[in-house]
């Protein structure tokens, strides 16, 4: 005689049947939603710098997801970006809170972003306490990676997915040397006077101290140092003082909004001194409109330009420009950074932070800005992009006739660094002096 089924057996059968129906009727996208990897994207989102971090990461995430996502042990996982406004230019406290929210509330797998070095130093502590991988595509202070060298076990989770301020500063120094040589050869100024015009932030302080010795090696001299706030909107007084000091060359060091005022007012006043160095705002397409075209002849630097650095550079540049109506700035290196993360996760077979660190350290990837690899753990500055020919070089651009022309690498030897002889990208142009600088110097017979 068959044993009657009890209530418990009937319930199990009912439950299994119901579950089967639910699985059949549940939309595929709801099931797939479980196979996601949350990645934090952090920056000052009310400013263009944070927006470009998000834009670069968004483009990369869309491309990765469209190609099947991140493959973890044979299973595709879509990327879900979680945005956080860290207000890092104005508040270190806000910056730390944003990082903590991403890690402890949003439970992201890792974080990309951060800009202001003073804030990133504090955000690194949250990273270290929680052992979560943190890639910045902006912070320039050497101290960020010096920490990795000094206390690897605590700070190994930090990677600078860009070159350090030390090397961006070196590119700026190269531009000064270019101007000194050209001025001496074409305008007869044998010992040009150079004014340092730099926002007052941590990143530039070591360079400013080193400038006098560098100028001496170039056969130039220091006219003075002027340091406005990073968010200043009027620098007319500083520019008039620079002109009064008899400067022939202005060594700009601007990575913040002050670069707009510096560029516009230099053009309005027609200061008879050549601007070189780093004015990151000047690299934006919208800078022409922001300055009413007064940025003509101004210089900027960037990892990207509409020129063939790799096969990926122009397609990325054009797609970014068409979508956002602006040129990709250095912070949009978040685009390449997300592809590095994808590769590291796939090689690690998961999201274990220590395994991700080991795989990121093995990075060798050709991105939109060049061949990307991180400096080794025994380097003075570990975990930042290798900067040299054959890897990422960055470029110097100059506004010429309303367009951004690449003027370096120009095939000449580079001041202070070997290996740049003969390095020049197809389509590069030549550095030009503003006509009022030329006429001013000729009138003065210098």
Provide structural commentary.
- There is one protein chain.
- By secondary structure, the protein is of the alpha/beta class.
- The protein is built from 16 helices and 15 strands.
- It has a 6-stranded mixed beta sheet with strand order 2-3-1-4-5-6, sandwiched between helices. It has a 4-stranded parallel beta sheet with strand order 8-7-9-10, with helices on both faces.
- α8 (165-187) packs parallel to α9 (205-218) and α14 (334-348) packs across α15.
- Mean pLDDT is 91; it is low at 1-5 and 21-33.
Total count of helical runs of at least 4 residues: 16
Strand content: 15-25%
What is the helical fraction, as a range of percent?
Answer: 40-55%
Helix/strand structural class: alpha/beta
Strands, count: 15
Q: Average pLDDT across residues?
A: 91
The dominant shape is: globular
N-to-C span: 117 Å
User: Within the largest sheet, what's the order of strands?
Assistant: 2-3-1-4-5-6
What is Rg?
25 Å
Main sheet? 6 strands, mixed
- Sequence stretches where pLDDT stays below 50 over 5 or more residues: 1-5, 21-33
């Amino acid at each position: 005689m068959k044993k009657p089924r009890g209530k418990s057996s009937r319930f199990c059968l009912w439950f299994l049947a119901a579950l089967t129906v639910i699985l059949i009727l549940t939309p595929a996208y709801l099931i797939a939603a479980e196979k996601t990897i949350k990645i934090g994207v952090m920056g000052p989102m009310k400013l263009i710098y944070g927006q470009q971090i998000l834009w670069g990461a968004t483009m990369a995430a869309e491309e990765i997801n469209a190609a099947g996502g991140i493959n973890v042990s044979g299973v595709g996982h879509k990327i879900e970006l979680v945005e956080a406004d860290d207000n890092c230019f104005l508040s270190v406290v806000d910056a730390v809170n944003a990082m903590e929210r991403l890690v402890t509330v949003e439970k992201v797998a890792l974080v990309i972003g951060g800009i202001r070095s003073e804030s990133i130093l504090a955000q690194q502590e949250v990273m270290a306490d929680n052992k979560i991988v943190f890639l910045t595509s902006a912070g320039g202070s050497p101290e960020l990676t010096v920490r990795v060298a000094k206390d690897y076990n605590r700070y190994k989770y930090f990677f600078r997915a860009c070159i350090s301020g030390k090397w961006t500063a070196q590119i700026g120094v190269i531009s000064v040397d270019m101007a000194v040589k050209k001025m001496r050869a074409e305008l007869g100024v044998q010992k040009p006077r150079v004014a340092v015009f730099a926002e007052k932030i941590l990143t530039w302080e070591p360079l400013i101290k080193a400038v006098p010795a560098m100028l001496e090696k170039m056969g130039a001299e220091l006219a003075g140092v002027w340091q406005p706030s990073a968010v200043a909107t009027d620098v007319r007084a500083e520019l008039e003082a620079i002109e009064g000091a008899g400067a022939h060359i202005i060594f700009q060091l601007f990575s913040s909004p002050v670069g707009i005022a510096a560029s516009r007012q230099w053009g309005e006043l027609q200061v008879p001194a050549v601007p070189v160095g780093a004015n990151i705002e000047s690299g934006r397409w919208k800078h022409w409109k922001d300055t009413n075209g007064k940025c003509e002849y101004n210089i900027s630097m960037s990892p990207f330009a509409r020129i063939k650095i790799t096969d990926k550079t122009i397609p990325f540049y054009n797609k970014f420009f068409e979508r956002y109506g602006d040129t990709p700035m250095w912070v949009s290196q978040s685009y390449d950074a997300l592809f590095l993360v994808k590769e590291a996760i796939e090689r690690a077979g998961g999201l274990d932070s220590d395994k991700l660190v080991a795989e990121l350290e093995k990075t060798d990837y050709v991105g939109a800005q060049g061949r990307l690899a991180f400096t080794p753990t025994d380097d003075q500055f570990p975990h930042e992009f290798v900067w040299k020919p054959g890897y990422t070089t960055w470029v110097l651009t100059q506004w010429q006739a309303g367009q951004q022309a690449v003027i370096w690498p120009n095939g000449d030897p580079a001041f202070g660094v070997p290996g740049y002889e003969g390095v020049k990208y197809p389509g590069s142009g030549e550095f030009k002096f503003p006509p009022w600088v030329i006429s001013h110097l000729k009138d003065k017979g210098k």
